[in-house]
Every structure is written in C-alpha cells, then in structure tokens.
Amino acid sequence: MFAKTDLLPPDAILGLTKLAAADQREEKIDLGVGVYRTVDGATPIMRAVDLAEKAMIQKETTKAYTPADGAPGFCEAILKLVFGSDSEQVASGRTIAVQSPGGCGALRLAGELLARNDAAGISAGAPTWANHKPLLTAAGLNVHMTPYYDAKSSTIDFDAFITSIKKLGPGDVLLLHGACHNPTGADLSHEQIDAVTDIAAERGFLPLIDTAYHGFAANLETDAYILREMTRRLPEVLITYSCSKNFGLYRERTGAIIFAGRNSDQAAAVKSHIINIARASYSMPPAHGGAIVSEILHSREMAQIWRDELAAMNQAVRNNRKLLVDTAREAGLGNQLSYITEQNGMFSLLPLTLEDVTLLREEFAIYIVGAGRINLCGVNAGNVGHLVQSLSDVLNR
Ligand code: LMR
Question: C or N: which end of the chain has fewer Cβ atoms within 10 Å?
C-alpha cells in the first residue's frame, strides 16, 4: 500500500518552529508561528484560564461524552461574545455555533459544509494564511486568489480587491479575515468593510470570516465590527472562530464554527449538517478547552480578568511594533518599516524575498515565515538590535 509513499516537506509554519527549537545559537530569534510570547519568550497560561481550569476540574464528575455541539454553555457564550449579549443576532435564534477542534477544525467543517452545498469556489485575498488553501482544498473546494495586499506600498490594494470581488455572485464564497489579517496585519477599515458588505448584498456571495485574533486589534467590541455588521446586513454569513490566541488555549484545540442565517429554522438546519459532518469525522470536539472558555465567560469576575489580560497582551504586541520601527529608524533604515505600527495583531510582512529569509535564518539565526511574515511577539528589547542590524545587512546587500 505505502511502498511508493514519498516523504512530504515540513509544514511552512509548524516546520519552522521545529527548526528554530533545534537551533542552539544564542542570538536566535524565532518570529515564526503565531503564538503570544512574553519578553522572556514564554507563552504562559493566562490567569483566567488557570482559575477556570481549576474550578472546572473541581466540579467535574464524569468523562462521559459531551453534547455534539461542544462543552455545555460554550456555544451560547461564544455567540454572546461575538455578537454582543443584547444583540438581535443572538435573541432571534438565527445564529448558531458548534464547538470545533480549534480554528482549523472550524475551517474544515466550513469547507465541507460549503462543498456539500455546491459552493462554486472560494476566493481569498492574497496573500493569506499558509494553511487556508491546503485546508479548504482538502475539504473539496476550489480556492482562487484575488488581489488584496500590495507588498510594494505595504497597504491594502482596495481598488483591485473591490474590482475582483464584484465579479463574484451567488454560489461563490469570499474568505475574509476577522481582525488582524494573517499574514499582513493589514485590516479593512470600517468604511471598507461597509463597502464589501454592500457588494456582498448586491452580488449575493457568501462571506466566510476567519477570526483567529479577536481582541488583538483594537478591543473585543471594535474587532467584532466585521462580524456584527455583516451578519446584521446579509442573509447568510459563516464565521470560523479560534480561541487559541485570545484565550491562549493553543494546544487545547478550541474554536467554533458559527452560522448566521435568515431565521432560526434555517440556522437549526445548517447546525444539523455541521454536526453530521463532525460525526462522520471525529464525532465531537474535545471538551476541555470549551469548558474552560465557558467557565470564564459565565463568570463576571473571571471574564474581567480575561479581558484585562487580553488587553495587556494586545498592548505588549503594539509596544513591540513600535520598538522595531523606532530601532529601525535609529539604525538608519529610515521609514522603511514605519507601516508596521499601523497594522494589527501578531503579524506584519517585511519587504524580503525568499532568499533574504533563508539568509536571515542561516546566517543570523532569525526565523521568519515564507517570504517575510514576522510574529511581532518575538521582538523584544534584548533582541531588537540584532534583528534590525541583520535586516539592514540583508536589505542593503
Ligand atoms: C500561525 O499562523 O502561525 C498560526 O495560526 C499557527 C498555525 O497553525 O499556522
């Protein structure tokens, strides 16, 4: 059966983590995988998560199966977090959620659901997260790339994006990023979201909004604009949601697929299909992470601790952005990197080629994804000098 099976190359992002971990050079800087890090390079368990986990374990009396849509209370809590507790979207019952094994699991469920409903194809602005295309293709979808980011000006090429999505119609899907675009950090403004929503309403395509960094741009409320506005104004919207970054639950594989439809009957029908797809794949999501999220969001005190911690993480990444840009300016790189302070979330793209990235890794022990995505969490006062010197060396060669 497997006599001819060939060895695949490592994953573009996870493979880099392994390489970086094996590198013993003291000056090593890992700007790879999208994981939050403190100045010491640690990814601590959030205090709210620790409190919730302890409370939960004390209360736990069984390891029997959880319901198919996830840990008790999880779906209701996520819907309220995403749409607001007094929202029409929640009160009407026209939104549903199903807990998934991480954001990847939600995307896979979304992909299979779309393939099952004969989606003509899915368009994604370029560049997009390295795993979007493999994941959605594996679910049976044709993924088309549309223009989104102009690397020369380090800004969104909104005219080109708009021109291409105006060609979409019913049966098409447009993959959008919730706050904090991966890999560029360049988010649509609220006005641009409104314009995309107008086009979706006119052309009849379905937005699939992949949301993995809720709370890392402005704050939880402002970051939800795209989710709330699109579901308010459009008849159908799919959302994939990850709790990996904002709850720091990476290894617990906790996320959700969310559907907002015309009414509660349609939402219930779509939910039954999502559960059916999951049952034919892994039956039901692991309970632990979902139970932690539910515990946090159902406790006023823990929810506040979590919100404060998330805001602090957000601020720390913003500080790292400023540190990099200021240091680059002082080192004579001028304003070449100044766009980085305008962007959101963990990532920005540096103006590098694949060759530059290889050189930075081999010669300077700096780990960067693809052709230039850096995780700003890996920048700190102790390593920014080496980073900027190396960048300056490579950019001026
Ligand atoms: C990333 O983009 O680095 C993260 O979302 C982790 C992953 O699974 O790729």
Answer: N
Residues 210, 223, 306, 356: which is the catalytic one? 210
In this prediction, residue 397 has a pLDDT band, given cuts at 50, 70 and 90, of confident
Q: Which of 69, 129, 157, 271 is catalytic?
A: 129
User: Rounded to 5 degrees, what angle do the CA atoms 371, 393, 357 make?
Assistant: 20
In tens, the pLDDT along 132-170 reads 999 999 999 999 999 999 999 999 999 999 999 999 999
Ligand 1: centre distance to CA 28 (Å):
20
Assign domain 12-44+303-395 to a CATH class. alpha beta
Residue nearest to atom 5 of ligand 1 (CA): 34
| Residues 265-321: tens digit of each pLDDT | 999 999 999 999 999 999 999 999 999 999 999 999 999 999 999 999 999 999 999
Question: Is 271 marked active-site?
Answer: no
Counting atoms of ligand 1 from 1, which one is nearest the CA of 33? Answer: 3
Model confidence, pTM: 0.97
**Which atom number of ligand 1 is nearest to the Cα of residue 250?**
6
Q: Is the pLDDT of residue 396 over 90?
A: no
* Cα gap 258→345, rounded to integer Å: 22
d(C-alpha 106, C-alpha 96), whole Å: 13
Residue 393 designated active-site? no
What's the token pair of residue 10?
């490592």
Q: CB of 341 within 8 A of CB of 186?
A: no
Catalytic residue list contains 306: no
Instruction: Give the pocket of ligand 1 (CB within 6 Å).
Output: 13, 33-34, 129, 131, 182, 212
d(C-alpha 120, C-alpha 68), whole Å: 29
Q: What separation in angstroms does the CA of 201 have from each of 196, 211, 230?
A: 9, 21, 9
Query: For residue 135, what are the contacts with CB-CB under 8 A and spacing of at least 6?
Result: 104, 107, 108, 111
Give the CATH fold of the 65-298 domain: Aspartate Aminotransferase; domain 2 (3.40.640)
R_g over Cα of the chain: 21
Residue ranges of the chain that CATH labels 3.40.640.10: 65-298
- How much distance in Å is there from the Cα of 254 to the middle of ligand 1? 14
